Amino acid sequence: YPLAAKDKRGRLRAGAAVGVGDYERIDALIAAEVDVIVVDTAHGHSQNVIDTLKTIKSKYDIDVIAGNIATARAAQDLIAAGANALKVGIGPGAICTTRVISGAGVPQISAIINCTEVADKHNIPVIADGGIRQSGDIAKAIAAGASSVMLGSLFAGLKESPGQLVIYKGRQFKEYRGMGSLGAMVKGSADRYSQKRATEKDKLVPEGVEGRVPYRGTLADFVYQLVGGLRAGMGYCGAQSIDQLRK
Fold first, then answer.
1. How many angstroms separate the CA atoms of 61 and 81, rounded?
2. What single string gives the DSSP state of each residue in 56-104?
3. CB burial class (10 A; 0-12, 13-18, 19+) of residue 60?
4. What is the spatial distance between Cα 35 and Cα 141, in angstroms, rounded to a whole number?
5. d(CA 46, CA 55)
6. Using one digit for the tens of pLDDT, what is the confidence trace for 53-70?
7. Which residues participate in catalysis according to the annotation?
8. What is the pLDDT of residue 100?
9. Mind listing the GO molecular function terms for this protein (predicted)?
10. What is the rounded distance in angstroms from the CA atom of residue 85 to the CA atom of residue 62?
11. Residue 38 — φ and ψ, nearest 5°?
């Protein structure tokens, strides 16, 4: 499917994340002909997210993904506000510390089930964001109801991924940091965690850490292995398609 990720003019489809109330950035993205906007916050079930979502949908004819959430009520409220897809996951990331720092979070499989019970009634896809450690976790997330998954730590070790390649005790690693890490917050992700107003580095409260992950080679070879694992999981379940696995 060589055109699966391209628009009618043959251009690669592109999406971009925005914070709550960042209408100047939203206007600029629309002018640049972005294909989808993601209202991306650590706590997606909030009035600010709902208001931003409603404003975008009332002003522009564009698909909007909203998140992150973990409950059926959150799914219902975001769908009612106009979300075209939901991003699910509170704290399951490999180097996310939200659950430890804040005490908030839901096990990822439970969160997916909670949200898809509502989303399926409205034909709204769910994106499982976080908690994917192995290819088998992709199969589990889809079987729980997700239409797609997001990968962070697994891709972080690839040749094509950003991050410095380092040698540690004779092994190759790539540097990796979570969106909620101090380093990422200083570079601009603080808004995602409602800490945009923090003016000093020591006033930020990180919800993630920085570290390194094993070097995994090239993207093409690694994705081939992930797809193979997913196919194996589908085979064990007797599913011939993603839709069958979801059901």
1. 14
2. HHHH---EEEEEEE-SHHHHHHHHHTT-SEEEE-SS-STTB-HHHHH--
3. middle
4. 25
5. 14
6. 999 999 999 999 998 999
7. 96, 192
8. 78
9. IMP dehydrogenase activity
10. 12
11. -110, 115
CATH superfamily for 15-235 is Aldolase class I (3.20.20.70)
As given in the structure block, the two tokens for residue 87 are: 């991003």
Locate tokens 């659950």: which residue? 99
Residue 98's CB is within 10 A of a number of other CB atoms, namely 24
Which parts of the chain fold into alpha helices (H)?
Answer: 23-31, 47-59, 72-80, 98-102, 108-119, 135-143, 153-156, 182-187, 219-237, 242-246
Q: Grade residue 210 by pLDDT with cuts at 50, 70 and 90.
A: confident
Cis ω before 48 (30° cut-off from 0): no
pTM of the model: 0.85
How far out from the chain centre does Cα 215 lie?
A: 22
**Looking at residue 233, what is its pLDDT?**
97
| Residue 23, C-beta contacts closer than 8 angstroms, at least 6 positions apart | 55
